[in-house]
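Hi V.,

You were right to ask for the full record rather than a summary. Here it is.
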Amino acid sequence: MKETVEIDVTIIGGGIVGLFTAWKLSEKYKNITICLFEKSEYLGDHSTGRNSGVLHAGLYYDYDSLKHRYCIAGNKFWNKFSSQFNVDIKQVGKYIFGNNEKDIEELYEKAVKNGVTGLSRRPISEISSYVNSKFCFFSKTTSIINVPQAVKVLEKLFTNNDGIIVNSRKVDNILNLDKFIIDFSDYQIKSSILINTAGHDAINIRNLLGLNNLSNLYVKGDYLATTQKLKYPCLLYPLPEKNLKGLGIHSNIGFDETTRFGPDTNIVQESLYNSNDENITLIKNDISKNFKNINLEKLHYDFSGIRSKIKLNGKEYNDFWISSPITNYIEACGIDSPGLTGAPAISEMILDLINL
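Predicted structure:
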C-alpha cells in the first residue's frame, strides 16, 4: 500500500505558467499547502527553456483572443516584475520585414488594432545592410528576457512562501473521487484542487481524467547558432507563416551574446528534440535568402523546441485553452507562443477559476 499525502492544491508542470501560478497562489492564500510536481529533473526544461526568450508585443494574434489580451498584459507585467525582482530584460525591439508591402501593411494595421504601443513605420534603409527585403516596420515594446533567471526567481518566491516543489516525478494515474488521487511511482497525493500546467503532457494529464476532446499537435523547431560576430542591434523577424504555425526564421540576441536563427516548423508525432541534416540545410537556405552577409560555415545546430499546439475535436485550435471542465480542476493547454510573454496573465485566469 502506497503512502498517501494530503495537500490542498497540486500543480502539475514546472514551466513558466506553473511557476507563476504557484507563486501567485501562495501570495493570495497564506494558509494552504501547495505542491508543484515536475516530471523533469529541472524546472522550465521544455517549452519554457527552449524558445527565443522573446517578450512579444502582441502584433500577430486575433483581436480579443486570449493570446492577444494575455500577450499585451503579460508584456507589461514582466517589465514591472523584472524591476521588482531583478530579472534581466533587454529592450531591444524588433523589425518585421518582407517583400510584400500589402502583407507588411496588413500586419501593421492588425497590431494597431490590437492596441500595441511603440509601433512605427520605418524605411527599409535602416536594416538594409542586414536583410534582403523591401519593406519593414518597428516594434519598440518587443524585448528579450533572461529565462533561466526568471525561472530561478519564481522558484525562490514560491518556496519562500512555503510552497513545495518536487522534481523528477511523473504522474502515473489520476482518480477523481471526493478529492483527486494523483498516483506516482512511490506514493499518492490526495488533493482538493488540481491544476494542469503540464505543457507537452497537459493533454495526457487530462486524458487520465476522461477528457478526450483535445489532442496534441506537436510542432518542432530547430535553432542554429553562429560564431560569426553579427552584432545585430535588434531582433529581425520576417513576416510570419500563414495561420501563425511559426513566426518565421528570425534572428535572436542571446544573453550569452550568441546570435541564433530559428525556429523552423515541422509537424512531428512525438515530443522529441532530435534534429537532422536535411532540416538544418533548409534552415541555412532560409537564412541566406532573408539575411545578408551570412557565413553558412559558421552556423551550427544549437537546440530544438516543441510548440505545445493542440487540436479541438480533431481541428487545429489556435488560441490558449484555459478551462475548468471538472469541479476543482483547472487546465492550461495549447500554451505555445506567446506563452512565455502571457504566463503572468494566464496564471491570473487560472486563479480566477479556483474555488477556495
